[in-house]
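Here's my example:
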Amino acid sequence: MQTGADGIEIDYMMDLQQARKLAADRVTILGNINPTLMIDCDRSEIRAVTHRCIETFRGSSRCVCGSACVVPLATDPELPQGFVDAAREFGRVRDSS
């Protein structure tokens, strides 16, 4: 991936493992959690997708797990908190455990 940028935001439809492979630790990836999950799911699903994002980039410092777009206005405030809680539980991506 050659963009000249230090980081890019990827859409939730982009495969995160493929994005990591293409970025090859040269570009920081922001994303790619589906923003509609903030309306259509529960905390356990937010927790699971956050965990997958962190595990995909485990050992790298080139990922910021987050919504692949703006968080919808109709979002239950508890759901983004579930994302934050999961990120704290599973650790930063460059952690080894």
